[in-house]
Design a protein that fits this description.
The chain is an alpha/beta fold and 400 residues long. The protein folds into 3 domains: 101 residues, Orthogonal Bundle (Helicase, Ruva Protein, domain 3), CATH 1.10.8.60; 177 residues, P-loop containing nucleotide triphosphate hydrolases (Rossmann fold), CATH 3.40.50.300; 92 residues, Winged helix-like DNA-binding domain superfamily/Winged helix DNA-binding domain (Arc Repressor Mutant, subunit A), CATH 1.10.10.10. It is 51% helix and 12% strand. The strands form 2 sheets. A 5-stranded parallel sheet has the order 2-3-4-1-5, with helices on both faces. A 3-stranded antiparallel sheet has the order 6-8-7. β7 and β8 form a beta hairpin. The longest helix is centred in the C-terminal third of the chain and has 22 residues.
Length: 400
């Protein structure tokens, strides 16, 4: 009977693999040709063109659901501009940051500052007031006469940080040019949330959305073409069965129009096929990969929540199907058990609405006759998933 470890190691050493280039299946890969996004590429390019004519472009907002090619297109346009910047005497600085990767507003601004060239001694990783960090960013732009384009991906997360901290940094960023005597700053915001502007200060909306571009969902046929293009470059010939390709496109296109999800599904399916020593990706591999990705996504989402959001989720787990008041009471008990100060019921009610948007919990309005209406929440995922996700958090081990 053969040893499974040796089988896998032998296959790796012999070069037996159906995937010939994994990088092409990663979400950061920018293909030479971005299919089905010709108009959007033209619109983003036209919006940013003034920077090459030594003028400040208008602030730009790019909308669309996840996996519709927003970041891909913006990054490609920026890379093309960057190639030409090196042939220009006009000092241009292109800066990219993803709000979702930064847990604090301070961290996001430091990330932008580092790309502008601010070192640790000029901009420490902590300890300054937000207003001082912003002042140093502008000072760097003005001192170097830089014409900066700040691309902030998933800007809806920055909007949430602004609400939580009470800092009007988005307003300051969009009005920065009023303070700059030399150089300029253009904001490009990329958002998955088509309604996120509704949560912003009206002053921010008028200055941030000077130009807007909406990316529509891909359809199933378009996703299939995108997958075929990636398969040609990343897999050996004839290693994907046609029904498996169709299912990948259907699962991602039919529900979300999400090309990134389709490519992830293809990659994980290929990895599963390799692990099982199969020379082809089948429908069964795609179905198995779909379940695996869904589980991983939920776990990653749960782990990313700050402490009090985690406590709210645990509170719901303990009193599943309960009203806001009952959940708040359970939450307070958890805070007491951990020796933490509790947040107000109003803030917890806001948190419940935010967590509901993620799909981890679901809420429904219940009529109570003369007592009016109340909203009751229950888990949309299993308790086991929550326990598994929180088990490594030392502060929660005694209460999960």
């Amino acid at each position: 009977m053969s040893d499974p470890i040796d089988d896998l190691l032998d296959a790796a050493e012999s070069g037996k693999s159906i995937i010939k280039n994994r990088d092409i299946l990663h979400f950061t890969y920018i293909p030479d040709t971005i299919l089905h996004r010709k108009n959007e590429q033209e619109q983003v390019t036209q919006s940013l063109l003034p920077i090459l004519k030594q003028s400040r472009p208008s602030n730009l907002l790019v909308y669309g659901k996840p996996g519709t090619g927003k970041t891909l297109v913006v990054k490609k346009v920026l890379s093309k501009i960057q190639e030409r910047v090196e042939r220009s005497n006009f000092p241009i600085k292109l800066v990219y940051s993803n709000s979702k990767n930064e847990t604090t507003l301070y961290g996001l601004l430091v990330s932008l500052g580092r790309q502008l060239g601010l070192e640790q001694d000029e901009l420490p990783s902590n300890g300054l007031a937000i207003s001082e960090v912003f002042k140093r960013l502008l000072s760097k732009i003005e001192g170097g006469k830089l014409n900066a384009i700040f691309v902030i991906d998933e800007i809806d997360y920055l909007a949430q940080l602004v609400v939580k901290t009470g800092k009007d940094i988005l307003y300051q960023l969009t009005r920065a040019n009023e303070q700059l005597k030399q150089g300029s700053l253009t904001m490009v915001g990329i958002s998955n949330d088509l309604t996120f502007k509704e949560k912003l200060d009206p002053r921010v909306i008028s200055s941030l959305g000077e130009e807007e571009i909406v990316f529509t969902n891909y359809n199933v046929e378009q996703i299939k073409k995108i997958l075929e293009e990636r398969i040609n470059e990343s897999f050996i010939e004839n290693s994907i069965e046609e029904p498996a390709l169709n299912l990948c496109a259907a699962l991602a296109g039919g529900e979300h129009g999400d090309a990134r999800r389709a490519i992830d599904l293809l990659r994980v399916s290929g990895e599963l096929a390799e692990r099982q020593q199969s020379d082809k990706v089948t429908i069964e591999h795609v179905r198995e990969a779909s379940l695996k990705i869904e589980e991983n996504k939920e776990e990653a989402s749960l782990k990313s929540y700050p402490l009090h959001e985690k406590l709210v989720i645990i509170a719901i787990m303990k009193v599943n199907g309960s009203s806001t008041g009952e959940i708040y009471s359970s939450y307070k008990n958890l805070c007491k058990a951990l020796g933490k100060d509790e947040l107000t019921q109003r803030r917890i009610t806001q948190m419940l609405s935010e967590i509901e948007l993620s799909g981890i919990i679901s809420g429904r309005l219940v009529h109570q006759g003369i007592h009016g209406r109340t909203k009751k929440y229950k888990l949309a995922i299993s308790s086991e998933m929550i326990k598994k996700s929180f088990k490594d958090d030392l502060s929660l081990q005694d209460i999960v």
